[in-house]
Amino acid sequence: MSSEIRNLEPKQLWNKFADLNAVPRPSKKEERVIAFMKDFGKKLGFETIEDEVGNVIIKKPATAGMEKRTTIVMQSHLDMVHQKNNDTEFDFDTQGIEMYVDGDWVRAKGTTLGADNGLGVATIMAILESTDIAHPAIEALFTIDEETGMTGAMGLKGGLLTGGILLNLDTEEDDEIGVGCAGGIDVTATRTYEEEETPEFKIGYKITVKGLQGGHSGMQIHEGLGNANKIMNRVLFDGFENFGLRISEIDGGSLRNAIPRESNAIVAIDAIHEEAFLLETKEQEAMLKAELKTMEPNLEIVVSKVETPEKIMDLGVQEGLTRAIYAAWNGVYRMSADIPELVETSNNIARVIVKDGAVKIGCLTRSSVESSKWDLANTLRSTFELTGCEVTCTGDYPGWSPNMDSAILKVMTKLYEKLNNEKPHVAACHAGLECGILGTNYPDMDMISFGPTIKGAHSPDERAQISSAQKYWDFVIEILKEIPEKA
Question: Is 79 among the residues known to form the active site?
């Protein structure tokens, strides 16, 4: 790990982040980071617990003079989103993240950085290890699998924690204090189809949509970023309408909480239309680039000749599929009527796979209003069922309703103004935080979310602001001093 990262200020924070980023920690494969965290707690001599689903809890007593303060839960998730650029050779299962400094930012070399939520984890580790930071009794809660199901938060049982205040360190703007978030549900459409022999007069092409920014499907869904699955579908739809294009395979997107950056399709077209198809696709690329030039200046649609595929989709299924993806809602569905500029409900068409007689389309639907979440989920369900798909709705998790009378909110608002000579932005967000889920078993816990500035989360453009990390660290230290006494 580069020494330039470890020499950044505050060193306590960046050193722990460097230690953490040396440990592979993909969602649902957290065995190594769980062992790493348990070993960390035990070496410090603190009570360290792994619960039945893999969450790790480390308990540190209050420092001298802070024993009467309310016990706090400091919480972050251990897993990270794994995304890399197409031309980056990297094995997330075995390699640590390779970081470097770029001006006021820390980045990774062609991959996600893991600042979401690694900087939160590193903060808690630094506090646990410290000997000169005043704080009340701490229950450090490190949850698993936040990014692909929140199963850690869902599996945390009541009674394991005694804290009265929870500090969630998973917000990505340093001037924001989070008081609420969206819930979510996975909507998955599947079906099988009969494959047909590819006619002799057809030739094979590979179509690639690439160069998109990608990003967080909650925090960035309103930004107008391109969705590779929707763009690919436009190309396929047009190719079928004009040149009899037939689909053999599609592989688009990756994780449900990441806006798709790339999509690949293997298709067959009539040889007689080859020249016209190539010209039309080039014109369509120019049109889409003009349409998305502000947000997606690096969009590319690459068409390359390949061996003619042996099998293609049943024609009727292909027509239904392309029409369903065209009709399926993607992006902002409804803005909040109560909180200015807050996205209430959205959907991300995250994954499209067509291969070997099977179709799978994965979506993540989010909303801060439960009824609106189900309204959009049922809209998607109806769209895909009309084409013969079986649709399942799984992984349902609740949102977190704002409590504007929160005692810790009042403490933190005053502290932020004192430290920064400006008011913080107190807001709910459209991302899925674990607070709502944790609140189901700990309904009386006073919860708040904050963190340093992180841009481009869930994409290889993820970066953490160095100056913001110092500002955030100073804020954390002051918050710990001002935790109110037990009621």
Answer: yes
Catalytic one of 146, 344, 434, 461: 146
Could you list the beta-strand ranges (E) of 381-485.
390-397, 425-429, 446-449, 454-455, 463-465
C-beta separation of 333 from 376 below 8 A: yes
The domain over range 3-182+399-481 is classified in CATH as 3.30.565.10:
no
Alpha carbons 75 and 62: distance in angstroms, whole number: 17
If DSSP codes are grouped into helix, strand and coil, which group holds residue 208?
strand
pLDDT at 401: 87
DSSP 347-383: EEEEEEEEETTEEEEEEEEEESSHHHHHHHHHHHHHH
pLDDT digits (tens, 9 = 90+) for 252-296: 998 898 999 999 999 999 999 999 999 999 999 999 999 999 999
Tokens, residue 381: 């369900």
Asked whether residue 1 carries a pLDDT value surpassing 70, the answer given is: no
Q: Which fold has domain 185-397?
A: Alpha-Beta Plaits (3.30.70)
Which of 101-105, 432-436, 469-473 has the least mean pLDDT?
A: 432-436
- The structure tokens 């690329």 sit at 285
Q: Tens digits of per-residue pLDDT, 404-436? A: 899 999 999 999 999 999 999 999 999 888 999
What local confidence, expressed as pLDDT, does residue 2 receive? 67
Structural domain boundaries in the chain? 3-182+399-481, 185-397
What is the identity of the amino acid at 291?
E
296 assigned to active site: no
Q: How far apart are CA 106 and CA 38, in angstroms?
A: 27
Q: What does the block give as tokens for 233? A: 């579908």
C-alpha–C-alpha distance, residues 433 and 431, integer Å: 6
Q: Taking residues 456-473, report their average pLDDT.
A: 96
Which residue in the list 30, 79, 344, 462 is annotated as catalytic? 79
Distances 306 to 205, 211, 266, 293, 462 between C-alpha atoms, Å: 5, 21, 8, 29, 34
Displacement of CA 135 from its chain's centroid (Å) = 31
How high is the pLDDT of residue 476?
Answer: 98
Q: pTM for this one?
A: 0.80
The answer to whether the 3-182+399-481 and 185-397 domains have the same CATH topology is no
CA distance linking residue 406 with residue 103, whole number of Å: 37
b/e map of 13-44 (b: 16 or more CB within 10 Å)?
bbbbbbbbbebbbbbeebeebbebbbebbeee
Which of 325, 295, 300 has the alpha carbon at shortest distance from 224? 295
Q: What is the pLDDT of residue 411?
A: 97
- Say if residue 117 is preceded by a cis peptide, omega within 30 of 0: yes
Query: For residues 24 and 99, is the Cβ–Cβ distance under 8 A?
Result: no
- Burial label, 140 (beta-carbon count in 10 A; 0-12, 13-18, 19+): buried
